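Reviewer 2 asked us to include a model.

Predict the structure of this chain.
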Amino acid sequence: MPKIKTHKSTSKRFRRTKGGKGKLMRTKLGKSHLRRKKSKRAKSLYDEMVPVVSSGTKKRVRRLAPYLHEKGS
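Predicted model (structure tokens):
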């Protein structure tokens, strides 16, 4: 059985947590631009990663990046 190709932008946007649970994590939206107006505290909150809660998104990521769980990070 041949390997399945990984969607590269999906593998860069999502991570799995280490440990037993292995939750799917994503970065917060709005991090890339229009940050000059925001306070330092508001900008630092963008650095955190949040868990994915939508089951549809989880299924889509699993289809696009089938080896994401094996990566270890």
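The chain has three helices and three strands. The longest strand covers residues 24-27. We have added this to the supplementary material.
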